[in-house]
Amino acid sequence: MRRFLRYAFFAIVTLAVFVFLNNTDLFVSRPDREPIVLAHRGIAQRYDLAGVTNDTCTASRILPPKHDYLENTIASMQASFKAGADIVELDIHPTTDGQFAVFHDWTLDCRTDGHGVTREHSMADLKKLDIGYGYTADGGKTYPLRGRGVGLMPTFAEVLETFPDLPFLINIKSNDPDEGSKLAALLNALPPERRSTIMAYGGDRPIAILRAAVPAMKTMSRASLKRCLLGYIAYGWTGAIPGECHSTLVFVPINVAPWLWGWPNRFLNRMDSAGSTAFVIGPYNGGDFSTGMDSVEELSRLPKHYSGGMLTNEIEMVAAWLRAK
């Protein structure tokens, strides 16, 4: 019995030493660089987050505007890159005339002077709309951006033409597999070097189609992200990387990050070796994965010399914070 206990003790100590050495940041190097900053929707009008649900018309509850930029517009993207964004996230919808509109909402009624489901319109009709029509900071007494957004809804093709070599993250707003096929056809028509600068996330079904049709592209769905993170938490201590963590985006909620084996540097190196890119996002509280690193308090939770990616809705604040470090 004593011999068995000695062997068991030796095995436990050996395993503990292996786990420590295999996951410690000691002796691990990373590029000496600033974090890669992903601007979610670009510079946009901020709004009161209290009680927001998927059905909330956020344009009707904006904070008093500090600028005239509207999310998902060319001007907003230009300002985001100028402010310090490395990547800009945008939202797309297919149109009835075979294009992709860059616009956030599933329907037009909240932000614009149009009505109905966005994807049920032609791009020619969407170009006529005022996408600043519905923004109000005082409950509808005034509409400070009304009239300033006429014709500003771009196509994805226009975005690519305006920014021929800058990286983007596409958000597919539906779970329609046909949308994945249409987007794959557009992307496969691009030169390989341009295609390599574009990533995508969204519904499980279109992302599955896109992943199969454009295999070198980094893609992510909500389900694939959960499988990646849960698998890594379960057995990442071995150094093995779950299949779902390969060639993907990995959104890491800042409150989940400490549970990831080898966080931060060894984890980031493992994701790099799997052809993936990790972005720290805001805390996960059981909802979706769209919150960003949007306050100094959240940014202060990043490890010292953090060199991975981060997602933010406040690119100007984050850029200023990084400059002041």
Automatic annotation (TrEMBL):
Keywords: Hydrolase. The keyword Plastid does not apply. GO terms for molecular function: hydrolase activity. Its EC number is 3.1.4.-. It is an enzyme of class 3 (hydrolase). The keyword DNA-binding does not apply. It comes from the Bacteria. InterPro entries: GP_PDE_dom (IPR030395), PLC-like_Pdiesterase_TIM-brl (IPR017946). Gene3D superfamilies: Phosphatidylinositol (PI) phosphodiesterase (3.20.20.190). This is Glycerophosphodiester phosphodiesterase family protein. The lineage of its organism: Bacteria, Pseudomonadati, Pseudomonadota, Alphaproteobacteria, Hyphomicrobiales.
